[in-house]
Amino acid sequence: MDWSIIIDGLFTALEPMNMVWLIFGALLGTIVGILPGLGPATGVAVLIPLTFGMNPVSALILMSAIYYGALFGGSRSSILINTPGDGSSIAATFDGYPMTLKAKLDRPCQLQRWHLYSVELWQSSDLFFLLFLLRNLR
Asked: Which domain holds residue 64?
């Protein structure tokens, strides 16, 4: 397997304009996720028109950042006001909202943040495992 393709893709993703779209998409996704009833899929579907005139790589980075930002924002609304933004944040209402009522807000928010970091790490390791698996199948 030629590692130059993966390194080239990494450098493309780390270009300054793509990083701007990543930050913008994460902020926009967090705002969409905080709104009760709007989940990640709805947020991406509503904000697709933003990507029509964009570079395809930047558009995919923006849409994935909106998706993950909406996942993060959905957990915030379920912890703070006991109204989950999507199905994946329902479990945060079980422990997060009662802790909010006891004025222990920082703990559930920290746990949710670390959960999202671990999910990202797990998905990245799955990607590299899949690349090695595909390399050995040839």
From this structure: 3-137
CB distance 72 to 33 below 8 Å: yes
CA of residue 47 relative to chain centroid, distance: 15
| 43, 33 Cβ separation under 8 angstroms | yes
Q: Number of folded domains in the chain?
A: 1
d(CA 80, CA 99): 9
Burial-class residue 132 by CB neighbours within 10 Å (0-12, 13-18, 19+): exposed
**Position 126, amino acid:** D
State how far the Cα of 68 lies from the Cα of 73, in Å rounded to an integer: 9
Measure the CA–CA gap between 79 and 91, rounded to whole angstroms. Answer: 10
Q: Considering the entire predicted model, what is its pTM?
A: 0.74
Residue 135: pLDDT band with limits 50, 70, 90: low
Supply φ then ψ for residue 36, to 5 degrees: -60, 135
